[in-house]
Amino acid sequence: MKSHKVRTHKSSENLPRADQLAWKIAEVAADPVAVEPAIIEMIGNRIIDNAAVAAASLARRPVASARAQSIAHPLKPGATVFGLPQRQRLSPEWAAWANGVAVRELDFHDTFLAADYSHPGDNIPPILAVAQHCGLDGAALVRGVATGYEIQVDLVKGICLHEHKIDHIAHLGPSAAAGIGALLRLPAETIYQAVQQALHVTTTTRQSRKGEISSWKAYAPAFAGKMAIEAVDRVMRGEGAPSPAWEGEDGFIAYLLSGPKAEYSVALPEKGEPKHAILDTYTKEHSAEYQSQALIDLARRMGPRIGDLNRIESIVIHTSHHTHYVIGTGANDPQKMDPNASRETLDHSIMYIFAVALEDGGWHHARSYAPERANRPETIALWHKISTSEDPQWTRRYHSHDPKQKAFGGRVVVTLDDGSIIEDEIAVADAHPLGARPFARAQYVDKFRQLAAGVVHAAEQDRFLALVERLPELSAQDVASLTFSVDPEKLGDSRARGIFDWAS
């Protein structure tokens, strides 16, 4: 990996293209380095993971709405959408939109956390949609996905967005554009322009994840993927982009990040160096924000030790800056303590999540968020006894570059009614690569089977999984069938109408 310094330059400096971050990203994407077997294996895992959570979310309103929008844009050859018949092909940017929402709706797929946050699996829907539409094979697909993951992870390691209240899809737009460029084997010049254009149109604020969180949290990454496809298409037709997007005098760093005097360091693979970044990422065993993964596991472990939960006087979760200020009491969001809050808001309340996990001894992607579950009087009472506190040691470990030190958990102190204390801590989730039960292919398949049960027929599940097992050898026809279909009644209620189906 080579570290690149990135800062604002005045227009009069005429920063050479070769020194711009977008060009360096484009060179990485255009580098035809082979994808190693361990990377291919993990890409297959994440394709299975995405399909698993998409199956579980098919009937939910935001997913049905996105699918209805996409159905209004048929195109041949086109791309497939989860749940629809394989023969029903849609314009690739709209297929990516529908699939992106299905993948993200339950907050249940992969994650990478460093200087900023990300869900790198969000790169897969747009890259796969373009591969299907353009008739590309499995080797091209893995090349594109490996690149999308690499660029997003490298940007997340080097550039912090959240401290400036910029949403993390500002890293996803460029990474998806780079992945599509690698998929199509586009020249560096084309990828360079597409990456900048994608950055420009996918920069939004973190209000998506603040206060009363709406369904836009699921739509935001799908929007970034859709914009990336459109950006690549425009640039392939000869159009350009705001340049230099990151370093410009009125650009991203100068006015949206740390300002004209700031300097960032972004490490990227050197020429000929394999793209390994996907191996740094991790998936979720539980359908909740990633910082809650380890704490759900800790709640499962602590519950039997505590015994009678009515004896609890208080629970303090000592944890990292991120957990405290984003999903903890440090956020100062009253909605995080409201039993009538949206699912998306409860997903970002570690107080609610820890209370339910203590009571139930686990977590379920649907039952744990049900309104009747959130409104149980005993749950509300316990929930309101829980607070978070930033601990510098957990913040340091959160930001550590040493995988053995990096941590996303915390220390929980439970005070009982007699003054006695029960405490325990956990660094990483059980499913994390360094956790008690790391996920491998068998666990990804189990997750898919569990979430697809009752939604996707067993034979269709088998067909899909068999394709993933042959991922790098798939023909273009095979890639075109890398989806699953369900019976129409499993797709939920899509009777609502919008502009695209006004006359239907």
Defining traits:
2 domains, MmgE_PrpD_N, two-stranded antiparallel ribbon, 2-methylcitrate dehydratase PrpD, MmgE/PrpD family protein, 9 strands, alpha+beta, MmgE/PrpD_sf, 60s Ribosomal Protein L30, Chain: A, 504 residues, globular, four-stranded mixed β-sheet
Please outline the helices and strands.
Blueprint: E1 2-7, H1 21-30, H2 37-57, H3 61-71, E2 74-79, H4 92-104, E3 112-113, E4 117-118, H5 124-133, H6 138-158, H7 169-184, H8 188-201, H9 216-236, H10 252-256, E5 263-268, H11 291-306, E6 312-319, H12 321-327, H13 343-346, H14 350-360, H15 371-374, H16 377-383, E7 386-390, H17 392-399, E8 410-416, E9 421-426, H18 441-452, H19 458-469, H20 476-480
Parallel strand pairs: 6-7
Antiparallel strand pairs: 1-5, 3-4, 6-8, 8-9
Helix pairs in contact: 1-7, 1-8, 2-4, 2-18, 3-4, 4-5, 4-9, 5-6, 5-7, 5-9, 6-7, 7-8, 7-9, 8-9, 11-14, 14-16
Protein name: MmgE/PrpD family protein
Family: Belongs to the PrpD family.
Domain MmgE/PrpD N-terminal: 20-264
